[in-house]
Design a protein that fits this description.
Chain lengths: 264, 118
């Protein structure tokens, strides 16, 4: 009789532990959705690459076209009306790039928000997602109207993406994600003011000033950072056994947990 | 058996209750979690969850804060340090029980099924 009681108790306790572990995994999975915006924006950056391809360099741009553009008030109005997102009017990254990013950035943020919502209410993020989205648009509008005259090689979108990731990392209160977002911010800033092609040239890869693809290294580095980082976060999230409660030895009762089974 | 009884006595009824155990687990993992998320994840009714949260909050194991997300009122739940300690202790005890019972079962000779009482 006592033995039967022991067996039942063992079964119940094992089952409770298994359910708790499954629950913890589920919450952990829901809590970390950082990978999605990384991959989504990485793909959007990658998709923009053809727009940055220059069929030929503007004739009079061998020296002066890519330096910062500081227009007077009239020039600023022209810039704001003509090319708000794709770089200063002196840049060849023109209206198509501007239009692409004006559409792609909101699409990326909307997709991120939808993804969060689809995960059953992502605990750490959902309540604050409106702040993130609102802040993004405030910053975007503020940027365009206040700082828009600074030429950034048509890479302003990278800065917006970096800001979004930083806000997300802060909302998640994740030091790892924050460090990653800081890294991307640095890359976005570098890509906005520096030709990354120079870096490759110094490393002996490629030739200097390779014409049409001059801006592609800037984009590809950023896109690679986002996509690879996002995939990394995804894999880490899947492999991650939360470990807060269940740092058990292999084969222990908790390690036999299935993927579902929240306590009712 | 007496050792098992001792272990069982270590279980805290306040934490051991199935739903509250679930609430604490979610709160520990999520750090700060919306009321609605717990509701959905544990498949509870709002009244039921409120009742359990009140018990846990009275015991100082969780903290609830109210606020707004946009215009919608929200309640967030976070686990306190005593709550975290209590949950870990509970899990440790449950694991100890399983290990103890498993060990005892292994030590006992297997019964011959032919001799089992009908």
């Amino acid at each position: 009789m006592a033995e039967r009681n022991n067996d039942e108790s063992d079964e119940l306790t094992t089952s409770a532990l298994r359910e708790l572990r499954a629950l913890q995994r589920r919450v952990s999975k829901d809590s970390h959705a950082f990978w999605f915006p990384c991959v989504a924006f990485g793909v959007l950056v990658l998709a923009s690459a053809p727009l940055y391809w220059m069929p030929s360099l503007p004739g009079d741009c061998s020296h002066g076209c890519l330096v910062s553009y500081r227009p007077g008030r009239l020039g600023l109005v022209v810039f704001l009306l003509g090319n708000p997102m794709g770089g200063g009017p002196a840049l060849w990254t023109g209206r198509a790039t501007a239009l692409y990013w004006l559409l792609a950035l909101p699409v990326g943020y909307l997709a991120t928000r939808l993804y969060f919502s689809s995960r059953g209410g992502v605990p750490r993020v959902r309540a604050r997602s409106w702040i993130i989205v609102t802040s993004f648009f405030v910053v975007m509008v503020g940027y365009i109207w206040v700082l828009g005259y600074i030429s950034m090689l048509g890479m302003q979108a990278l800065v917006f993406i970096a800001l979004g990731l930083l806000l997300l990392a802060v909302a998640e209160r994740s030091p790892g994600h924050f460090a990653y977002a800081i890294g991307f911010s640095a890359l976005a800033a570098l890509s906005s003011f520096n030709y990354q092609e120079n870096l490759f040239t110094k490393l002996g890869i490629g030739r200097p000033f390779s014409g049409g693809g001059l801006l592609l290294p800037n984009l590809l580095l950023s896109a690679g950072y986002l996509v690879i980082g996002g995939i990394g976060f995804r894999i880490a999230g899947r492999l991650r056994t939360s470990g807060v409660l269940f740092r058990t030895s292999a084969g222990g009762p908790a390690s036999a947990a299935g993927p579902s089974g929240a306590p009712a | 058996v007496s050792e098992l009884d001792n272990l069982t006595a270590e279980l805290d009824d306040l934490v051991h209750q199935r739903t509250r155990l679930g609430i604490l687990t979610v709160a520990l993992e999520a750090k700060r979690v919306e009321f609605g998320y717990i509701l959905k994840t544990l498949e509870l009714t709002a009244g039921n969850l409120s009742g359990h949260l009140a018990i846990l909050e009275d015991a100082g194991l969780v903290r609830t804060t109210k606020g707004y997300a946009g215009r919608r009122p929200r309640t967030w739940v976070s686990i306190t340090r005593p709550g975290s300690v209590a949950l870990r202790a509970e899990i440790d005890t449950l694991r100890a029980i399983v290990l103890r019972v498993d060990g005892a079962t292994r030590l006992q000779p297997k019964a011959d099924p032919r001799l089992a009482p009908m």
